């Protein structure tokens, strides 16, 4: 019995021991700490102003405050925040903090008239370890530096300076073999027919303003005319758009355009006739020069370009492609000079019905609508590019000029005012457009070329547009010229005058010069100052006869 009790006691001890072991808590695996909460962008201010993520006309040392919904970790800012210009180069900046480190204050040093992107990436961390939910990109376009870039001079001295500097494009940079104008400052041997006509008119200005001597001007004219007479390719007397300035061979303008260009030829003849009237000395050299110019003009078969005796002139003809381009020269555009010279030709003239039916389209070129408070007599809606009022009117004086279709003085002024008023109204809200910064015409644009106009406005201003309009809008044009020179001159003024174009909205400045843009500047400034080129061209007896025959009336005919 005692043994049974001992056995029972042992069993009880084991049972108590087992119960005691099972009552000890089993350890639980460790729990991970809570994931840090991400945070987001809150507000942005540039110099105390909130305007979304895009800021124009920013100063060179702005204060940029970027606020977040959490305090930020200072150590993460260096990797998360960048400030770059359009080329991708980093811009310097300093960073401070406010509002309990939830606001990052960026103080950069920026250049004038440049575009920058301030980026904050999702690498930005909060002090609690969370990451920024979405990146932030801020666009900053800096303002024009208001300080003058050059000493102030009188308006007349400024006009003289622009003419003298621009003259160098045609004289110093003229092709060494032919003397003709290169198409642009990067075109090598490619010379431009129409631009050379403008360059010849610029040469006359250069001699008359004593930029060069009359002897030097005559020598250059002899080189040019000799090349045109003996080396340059022609087709029924008409020249191609481009030539090789060394050999005189055609430089095709396009696949089909490898022959005659009647419009470019007209601009060349416009310049040659102006020079003929200027170099009017009785000496053998000037007499021979005039005779050679007459030969070149008389060889142009203007009437042949009626393509089978039609009552219209055609722009192009190719020895390999014939009339394939098939483009009629019909108004209103830049090509009035073609019909004026064709009617004036002593050898291959056209009758009035070609002008009326072809160019004027029996009144079809009329407009009559009002744009920005100004009525437009002729041409497309809102006028088109301003070179319509420059190329032909470098020689033809529109003052008091009328025919059955328009008052051409009114046409030139009103077209220019519409262009000006459009830029001041700035319906596309481009940065920089103003009463001092205006002018839409054909020019280079970034990575291309276009004929800018109110209906084709890409934010690019070409100095030639306003400057070459000085005879029509002297107050507005002079204001623009001053702005281009004094305020933008550090970026826009170079070896041959004003560069071709610029964009203040998406900052870009051309480094190019084009003959067809430089030429009108020097010539139309001179027509504004003295009327020299107008007086010379309009003194041509052929021009008087031809334009009167087309129905034009003017005190200058």
UniProtKB/TrEMBL annotation:
Keyword Transferase in record: no
Keywords: Signal
Record keyword Signal present: yes
InterPro entries: Glycoamylase-like_cons_dom
Domain (Glycoamylase-like): residue spans on this chain: 328-541
Signal peptide: 1-17
Name of one Pfam family that matches: Glycoamylase
The organism's place on the tree of life at top rank: Bacteria
Protein name, per record: Beta-glucosidase
Organism: Mucilaginibacter pedocola
């Amino acid at each position: 019995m005692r043994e049974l009790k001992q056995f029972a006691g042992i069993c009880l001890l084991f049972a108590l021991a087992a119960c005691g072991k099972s009552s000890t808590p089993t350890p639980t695996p460790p729990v991970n700490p809570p994931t840090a909460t991400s945070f987001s962008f809150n507000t942005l201010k540039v110099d105390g102003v909130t305007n979304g993520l895009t800021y124009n006309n920013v100063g060179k040392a702005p204060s940029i405050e970027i606020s977040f919904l959490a305090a930020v970790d200072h150590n993460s800012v260096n990797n998360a925040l960048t400030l770059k210009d359009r080329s991708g180069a980093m811009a310097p900046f300093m960073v401070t903090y406010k509002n309990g480190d939830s606001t990052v204050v960026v103080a950069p040093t920026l250049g004038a008239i440049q575009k920058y992107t301030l980026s904050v990436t999702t690498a930005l961390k909060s002090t609690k370890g969370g990451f920024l939910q979405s990146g932030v990109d801020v666009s900053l376009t800096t303002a024009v530096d208001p300080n003058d870039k050059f000493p102030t001079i009188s308006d007349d001295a400024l006009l003289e300076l622009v003419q003298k500097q621009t003259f160098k494009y045609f004289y110093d940079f003229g092709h060494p073999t032919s003397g003709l104008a290169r198409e642009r400052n990067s075109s090598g041997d490619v010379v431009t027919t129409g631009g050379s006509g403008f360059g010849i008119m610029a040469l006359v200005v250069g001699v008359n303003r004593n930029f060069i001597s009359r002897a030097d001007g005559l020598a250059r004219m002899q080189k040019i005319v000799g090349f045109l007479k003996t080396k340059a390719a022609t087709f029924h007397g008409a020249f191609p758009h481009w030539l090789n300035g060394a050999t005189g061979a055609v430089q095709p303008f396009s696949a089909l355009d490898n022959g005659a260009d009647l419009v470019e030829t007209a601009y060349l003849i416009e310049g040659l006739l102006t020079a003929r009237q200027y170099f009017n000395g009785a000496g053998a050299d000037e007499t021979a020069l005039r005779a050679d110019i007459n030969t070149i003009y008389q060889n142009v078969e203007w009437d042949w370009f009626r393509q089978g005796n039609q009552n219209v002139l055609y722009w192009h003809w190719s020895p390999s492609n014939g009339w394939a381009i098939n483009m009629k020269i019909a108004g209103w555009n830049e090509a009035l000079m073609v019909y004026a010279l064709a009617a004036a030709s002593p050898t291959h003239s056209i009758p009035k019905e070609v002008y009326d039916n072809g160019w004027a389209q029996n009144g079809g070129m009329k407009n009559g609508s009002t744009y920005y408070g100004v009525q437009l007599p002729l041409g497309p809606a809102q006028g088109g590019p301003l070179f319509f009022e420059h190329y032909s009117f470098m020689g033809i004086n529109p003052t008091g000029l009328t025919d059955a279709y328009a008052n051409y003085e009114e046409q030139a002024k009103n077209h220019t005012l519409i262009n000006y008023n459009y830029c001041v109204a700035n319906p596309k809200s481009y940065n920089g457009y103003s009463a001092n910064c205006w002018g839409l015409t054909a020019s280079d644009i970034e990575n291309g070329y276009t004929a800018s106009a109110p209906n084709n406005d890409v934010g690019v201003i070409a100095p030639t547009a306003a400057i070459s309009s000085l005879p029509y809008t002297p107050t507005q044009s002079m204001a623009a010229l001053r702005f281009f020179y004094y305020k933008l001159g550090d970026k826009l003024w170079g070896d041959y005058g004003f560069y071709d174009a610029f964009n203040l909205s998406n900052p870009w400045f051309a480094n190019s010069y084009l003959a067809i843009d430089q030429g009108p500047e020097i010539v139309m400034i001179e027509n504004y100052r003295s009327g020299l080129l107008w007086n010379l061209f309009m003194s041509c007896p052929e021009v008087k006869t031809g334009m009167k025959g087309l129905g034009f009336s003017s005190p200058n005919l």
